[in-house]
Amino acid sequence: MVAPRLLALLPPGGFPPGPEVLAAVLDAGVDAVVLRGLSACAVRAALGASAPAVRGRFVLHGATDGVDALAAELGLPVHRPAGAPGPGSRSVHDAGGLRASAAAGAPWALLGPVFAPGSKPGDRRPTLGLDGLAALCAIAPLPVVAVGGVGPAQAADCLRAGAAGVAAITGIFGDPGSALACGRAAAALRAAVDAVGQAARAR
Description:
This protein is α/β, with parallel strands linked by helices. It is built from eight helices and eight strands, in the order βαβαβαββαβαβαβαα.
């Protein structure tokens, strides 16, 4: 799986978004959705309720029980938490994580937090900021997808700093029970991402 330009991750804990919310987010232009926090049964249900054309845009999360067997069964890629073994993309927080991910054959790395993450209000990890993101992107041996406090304004800045893509959690699923709200949030992020690409092509 190539690095997504716009990635959505289900928020940790809480009630997972229903199939109509997932459909709205994908229709709005999200490239892929990481099904974090779902059991294997819930993953199968989410795929079963989704249109066949979009099922390939789901990504399994490495913390799901039996994820490798499930990935083989469904033919879907896996995103691994920081430090977890196995094939797939990886979450990382620093240069060491980027190097380890590349050595393990990861196609891309999810790097953050760039800004304070809305999904983890008690998170006390230091944020990278745009300067830190740019410095790590410059030395990264694989494509970087930026995560952590990313909304439309921050998305453009992250891409200009060298990220191959951006990821959002509460920036898309801030109201996980509303397909309309999540779809609008995803569309705003997609517009911001596309505007950076259009500006680059116009140069």
